[in-house]
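Predict structure. Chain length: 180.
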Amino acid sequence: GRLIVKISDVTLKEGAGDGIAIRRNASVEMDNIKASNIFRRGIQIGGGNNIINLNGYVSTGTEEATGIHCEMPKTGDMGANVIKLQNLDMDRNFSIGLLHGSKLTAKNVVSRSGWSVTAKDGSTATISNSSFTSSPKQKQANVSFPGKIQFTNVDFYLGEPDSAPESGVASAVRVAMNSN
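Prediction complete.
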């Protein structure tokens, strides 16, 4: 079974850890969540065998990781995550890593600084009606292990450089088939 949780109308401010951390075996419905300057992540999804529905998330501030982050363990099959995200407006960081046949559906997502999507081991990601701005300093590819990742009606932008990118090349979208 799964732990069933509903989180609504919550504001998270000035935290040193994760605002909301979801590990595994949970069915979580979240509505109208706000995060400001959360040092690690506003919302962190880890583990597996989760069903996540998030409708309405606003993150603000200068802490790079205040947005949303999903990272599943690489070892052991913890089960697939099913993640539905809609109406997200983030100053910082949309980072989704999918494994073990997980599925992401995201609609109406705005990320103004830094984003990445990874789908491997039979995972899929479908993102629509959204916009993503890359940070010129971002060292990794925005789309890696591209299995089945689909973008529909999505705008991609390259953010204003604070200084020259370390790699010497900046792009709004970088795609790489990584080997690890």
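Summary: The chain has a mean pLDDT of 86.
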